[in-house]
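Customer escalation, tier 2.

The customer says the design service returned an amino acid string that "doesn't look like it belongs to this structure." They asked us to rerun it and document both sides in this ticket. The original structure tokens are below, unchanged.
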């Protein structure tokens, strides 16, 4: 299983049902030293920024669901998937983020 930190559309249970045909297991989490920004065209992105935090969720997804997420996020043309450290239940975990 993979951990995916989400902060936008993929948090929605409706979007999850449309993409995966199921609701995914989610846990509240946050990225430390990242800020959340709007690109001006309605799309959001994060970037590393000291003393900022982005609230979101960890989705537990398998490799097939990760491929679906890549397509949904237009990876690698629009968003890049990278490995980050997320704070989840007072524990630092490895997770992917777009």
């Amino acid at each position: 299983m993979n951990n995916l930190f989400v902060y936008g559309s993929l948090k929605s249970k409706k979007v999850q049902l449309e993409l995966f045909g199921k609701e995914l297991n989610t846990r509240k989490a946050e990225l430390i030293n990242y800020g959340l920004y709007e690109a001006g065209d309605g799309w959001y992105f994060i970037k590393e920024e000291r003393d900022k935090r982005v609230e979101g969720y960890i989705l537990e997804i398998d490799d097939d669901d990760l491929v679906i997420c890549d397509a949904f996020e237009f990876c690698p043309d629009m968003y890049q998937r990278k490995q980050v450290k997320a704070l989840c239940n007072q524990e630092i975990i490895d997770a992917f983020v777009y």
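Tier 2 assessment: The sequence is consistent with the input. The helical segments are 13-20, 63-72. The longest strand covers residues 44-61. Sent an explanation to the customer and offered a walkthrough call.
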